[in-house]
Amino acid sequence: MVSRIAALLLSGVALLQVQAQTVPVTDLVGTWSSKSNSTLTGDGFYDPVNEKLIEPKHTGISYSFTADGFYESAYYRAIANPQKPRCPKGIMQWQHGSFEKLANGSLVLKPIKDDGRQLYSDPCQYKSSVYTRYNATEKFKQYQVSVDRYHKIQRLDLYQADGAPLMPMYLAYSPPKMLPTTTLHSLVTATPAAGKVKRGFAPQEVLFKRTDGNVRADQWWWFGVLMTAGGGVMYWFF
Question: Which ranges does the record mark as transmembrane (predicted)?
Fold first, then answer.
């Protein structure tokens, strides 16, 4: 009787270990982009040398995956305000790191915490766009790769943890178009020397706001967000 219970316990432990194991991924490999095919991962979206997020022509999302477990994501969202047309909001987010596919088919994306970046614009709330670190682990309940019936190209559907789908994405590049998968920015904790800018900020903390000398650039950023928000809606309906 004791040996039978022990055997059952051992089989239960083995089952849990199998469920926790990661599964090799091949069908995800490549760079995927939403319908506009304007937002893409890589150096065309984020410039780590000059600390700059580059605004695409259209809103959208993009994910890239490698066969050895690395990923990169790029988001550009513009939110129009019908009640206050002069107050559109814009958000750009970029992350990269490693990912796992679990035995139950779910995906877990773990970003390099010091590398993620976000640019947030709300002209009626802030005088300047706010540039911060960004760090958010993503979990997808499941995904599906298929050939789109209309476009006749490979399509990726990601389903969030609650089962809600993201907008479909289509294969844009294979092999994927990505920045280096290693850490791009090391968090500085030492006291900076005189005359140098301190770079040691915690995740989500403001890295910098656009200076007074860049007010005109900010105005063009907000104008671009407004036009993109309107153009994005027109794009999907026409």
Answer: 220-237
